[in-house]
Amino acid sequence: MRIVSDSSSDLYTFEGIDYKYVSLKIRVDGREFVDNEQLDINEMMTALEKSSSGSTTSCPNTGEWLEAFEGEDEIFAITISSKLSGSYNAALTAAEEYMEEHKGAKVHVFDSMETGPGMALMIEKIRELKDKGLSFEEIRDEVIAYKKTTNLAFLLHSVNNLAKNGRVSMILAKLIGVLDIKMLGRADGGVIDPFGKFKGEKRAIKETLVEMLRNGYKGGKVRIDHVMNLEAAEKVRALVKEQFPDCDFVINTCKGLCSHYAERYGYIIGYEC
Fold this sequence. Notes:
By secondary structure, the chain is of the alpha/beta class.
């Protein structure tokens, strides 16, 4: 059994199961940054911050998905929200082609409706269920049900890249830049919902936990990915652990695609309810 995710999962490696990823790409002023282990995040972020023309992203193509599937008969593919990228559609096409060419092979593509740590939770769940000896179909059904119990939130210091790519308004981007406002958002039906604007990171971190509790968080797994802001991630962990000392809380770094959208000092948090 193999898991294949696109690189918005922020996981280049994953232990305990056959795992591969396919890269998204970020283009800035004619330069292409490939979301893989060789990517220098700071270099990419600096290029984005200096750019006046904006940036574009592109998803893995069908051929790249097919290459990642090759050699396995049971495959789960996980993509960033289909509302944010064409990765899901490319993976679906690849799955259909692969099963046609490899009789008896099984490929299921999950639209995570999220990104980053939300995808990581799904990947962890598949590994857990495989270790319990569940069948391919049982794992598929369990993960579909599990996905309904997870949520995603994020804190951003800047939304310039989101605005330039039409994800939020330019007015909001200018407001956040001028007034040092931190924006809290969540994944709502696979799209970005900027629901809170707060003065200062300290207040925004506290409101992150408020949002989690509002959604029914009771001490389940928490996964947080940050963009060069380990200090903030550790503050969130301390705040959550204060109320839920036994919670399973893991800090990771945003890789290329998630760094592009979360921007410098932002973080994305996935959690179980």
